[in-house]
Amino acid sequence: xxxxxxxxxxxxxxxxxxxxxxxxxxxxxxxxxxxxxxxxxxxxxxxxxxxxxxxxxxxxxxxxxxxxxxxxxxxxxxxxxxxxxxxxxxxxxxxxxxxxxxxxxxxxxxxxxxxxxxxxxxxxxxxxxxxxxxxxxxxxxxxxxxx
Length: 147
Ligand code: NI
Known about the structure:
The protein is an alpha+beta fold. The chain has helices spanning 26-41, 123-135, and strands at 46-48, 58-63, 67-88, 96-110, 116-122. A five-stranded antiparallel β-sheet has the order 1-2-3-4-5. A hairpin with a 5-residue loop joins β4 (96-110) and β5. The radius of gyration is 14 Å and the shape is globular. The structure holds nickel (II) ion. The site of nickel (II) ion has 5 residues, from α2.
């Protein structure tokens, strides 16, 4: 595995919409492995591919409930229980702030082999999922800060 460079707020790539993943090849697996290593080394709990400069709809989450979860082409099925909680982002070092998000989220997604799954995330895991899915549409948590 290799550590990748995390791009930072101000880089226009972070504002792009990512594309659907269609090729579930060994190259994809290597990228996911490298994203995981990069996230863990940076003490993050989530990283989207765009943050390492790759415009595909996928992210690695470090969840409380399930450990590492790789979500590819995620789609929100239900989102409930909006609450305000504190967030940060590996692309916005030194910044944290309060964001309102659903704390109960169910998504459809594919795994690294292209197999479809449905999963429900609660609490901090739901926040992480929503934050990473925002990255896939060029949205940063600093866009959503509450007073
Ligand atoms: Ni982030």
